[in-house]
Structures are given as structure tokens and as C-alpha cells.
Amino acid sequence: MAQQAPTPLTFTVRRHPPEIIVPAKPTPRELKPLSDIDDQGGLRFNITQFHIYPGNPKMGYKNPASVIRDALAKALVFYYPFAGRLKEGPGKKLTVDCSGQGVLFIEAEADVTLKQFGVELQPPFPCSEELLYDVPGSYGIVDSPLLLIQVTRLLCGGFIFAIRHNHNMCDVFGYIQFITALTEMAQGASTPSTLPIWERELLCARDPPRVTYPHHEFDEVPETDGMTIPFDDMVHRSFFFGPTEISALRKFVPTHLKNCTTFDVVTACIWRCRTIALQPNPEDDMRLLIIVNARSKFNPPIPVGYYGNVICSPAAISKARDLCNKPLGHTLELVKKAKSEVSEEYVRSVADLMATKGRPSSTTGSYIVSDLTRTSLLELDFGWGKAVYAGPDLPVAGFYTRYINHKGESIIVVPVQLPGNAMKRFAEELDYMLAPDDRDDLGIPEHVATLSKL
């Protein structure tokens, strides 16, 4: 079964008052400018992550909140910029004021067990606003805490580590580096196994700046062009892609694309089904932005320990009619082509564009996807063992995460947010693609063919 609606669940969370956690030792007071890749307009937001852990009898009566609170103060000695505040200067340039003001921490208890969350853990999580309380005045980008953490103990002995962090400070790989240091401190280490390196000047704009790519991910388009999705009646669901579903989708992959990745196939499928579900004008340009980790593209390499953003989001663009009516191979080629554009020069071109064009955000109406299935999110261990779920809670983007089911199979979890009627059409179209039959190409089903006649 590819999709599953969240199980209704309500519970009560008792929160202790929010605390400010400062570094355990004195840290340098200085100003640290972010890179121009950190400073992309599209990264000016806070991202929430949930890490869910089962109980572990070996930990006895240890309180995970107390363990993590103490570890956080120690980790901030090494990652002291997180204890500062962002300031905005000329040209919207962001700089970290390493003031040592600290981060927000909340201890909480919930009257629910992990088992009550259901067999398949998936976003959206019930009562998520209770699992990470939005402390009044804390959500801003400038002059706000850069981290908000809530550790909620469950009745079964498990706990949920929820965190909100500023995306300008780090991408998911920098985030994992920081949380890895936090888990090491929680288990008794005095120094992180990977020492953090700032060196954000490595990804600042060149002098003079040279924008060498068209960068359609930042195109300015009229409001009448492309999809503007109404945010009333939005439905948020997760869809599961295991070995059976991936095998079904690969039947539609043409011979010359057989070496494509699972991410490519799933993304082509999701983009196509989403477009059909939204019923756009056939001539609308539909944009898919693929967040690409560019660390492997640099020579000399980005230093080990660098925890800033090294990501960009090349665009795949297609007319709605072509996405809906052409075989899946058309969409797949667009996905592969967009990913292949990313190089060291591409990233430097983005940095130069940010510095010269007023730090634009991504094109309005774009669908954004990111593959987190190959990261070590599930392996992050505070001493209680591996997580049973770990990943962002940001429904407006498709963050693919990994889940190990009861059979031990690695399952890709894809969150989707659409208006109610569109979600129904999306699920129906996905079921059509996953139907266990012998089709070797994706033709034009009757319910889609009408799009070309509009």
C-alpha cells in the first residue's frame, strides 16, 4: 500500500518553562559573516525536525531531557555561533553576532506511548505544536534564538527530540554534524569526533561576481503564470515507497534511462501525479526544484568539519500538458538533467547571483524536493539507541526520509501537501501508476487525456 492516512491521536503534553542554555564555557565574542550560499533568500526560514526514540531499559531511570540539556551546553562551546543572533547588514547580508546569548530548551512529558503513534511513523505528527512549543517571539530570523529544542518523554520510556533551527546556519549535513556532536557529548565525550570549521568565506561571492548560469530556479514569473495553490483546505499526507512500489514504477523507465536512481524515479512519479492532481492550464510552466548537496563537486574539497550550506536547487521546467500526457521517461529526463547541472562553478554562480541580485527567493509556485534517505538521521544516538523516525516536518516541501518497517525493509517516506480535492486525485493517480499489471509504458489514461483538449 503506497499511502496511509495519519491515525487520529490526541494527547496532553505538560511542559516545563522554556530555559535559555548558554555554552558551558566562555566563548569568543565576534562577528561571523555567513557565506553567500548560506545567505540565499530561499533559506531564510526555520526548519523543524523530529527524532523519535523508543525506551531502552539499559538507560535505567536516566532522564533524556537532563542528559541532552547538559550535552547541549557542552556542544555549544564548540558550536558557539548557534548561541548567537543573526544581524542584517547592507545588501541584506547576514552576519552572526556570537554573543553567547544561548538557545531555547524545553523539557516536557506526554501522556502517550510510542505504540499509540501507529505502526508506520510518518509526518504530519499529531499534536506537533505540542511536541515543539513555539515560544512567543522566538520564530524570527534576525535577533532570535537560532535553536529551539524540546525533549518530550513518553509513558513507555521513549522520547521525542524536536528541534527548530535556522536554515541559513546550516544545511542537513551541517545539522547532522552538529547533532552528532550533541549525541557524543550526551554519551560522555569531551570533544566532538569532528571539530567544526567555519570558513564561510569559501562560498562567498567572487570579486568581481560572475553569474555564469541562467538559474531558472530564481525566475520572476507573473502571478498568472504557473500554479498558485490555495492554502485553505490543505491536506498533509505521507506516501510510502518500498521495494514493491519502486519495482512497479521502474516498469515505466525507458531502456536508455535504466541506470537512473530510485530518487529520480520517485521524483518523476510524484511531480507527474502532483501536476495531474492540480489540474493546471495545459500551457502553464511547472517547476520542480531539486535540492542538491554539492560538497562532492569541489576541488579542492570543502574541508571536513564545514557545517555551512553547500546546497543549491536547480530547476526542472515542463509544460503541464507534457508532464501529464507524455510517458514518464520525459519527466525522468528533466529530473536527471537538472541534477547534472550542479558543479562547483554552478554553486559559485549562485553565490554571485545572491550578492548582485538582492538575494532572491525561489520562484513562487515551485515544487521543492530533497533526498534525505542517504543521510545518517536515523543513526543519531543520544544513548538510548537509534531513532525509529527522524526527519523534517515541513509539508510545503518534499523531504524524502527513510523508514525501516516491521519486515526490516527500507521504505522511502514522501510527505505531500495539497488541497483536499487535489489530494484525492493525487492518490488515485499514484494508485494507477502502482497497479500491479504488465504495462511497460505509461500511456495516457482517459482521465488525463482530457487535459490536452482544454
From TrEMBL:
<protein>
    <submittedName>
        <fullName>Benzyl alcohol O-benzoyltransferase</fullName>
        <ecNumber>2.3.1.196</ecNumber>
    </submittedName>
</protein>
<comment type="similarity">
    <text>Belongs to the plant acyltransferase family.</text>
</comment>
<dbReference type="InterPro" id="IPR050898">
    <property type="entry name" value="Plant_acyltransferase"/>
</dbReference>
<keyword id="KW-0808">Transferase</keyword>
<dbReference type="Pfam" id="PF02458">
    <property type="entry name" value="Transferase"/>
</dbReference>
<keyword id="KW-0012">Acyltransferase</keyword>
<dbReference type="GO" id="GO:0016747">
    <property type="term" value="F:acyltransferase activity, transferring groups other than amino-acyl groups"/>
</dbReference>
<dbReference type="InterPro" id="IPR023213">
    <property type="entry name" value="CAT-like_dom_sf"/>
</dbReference>
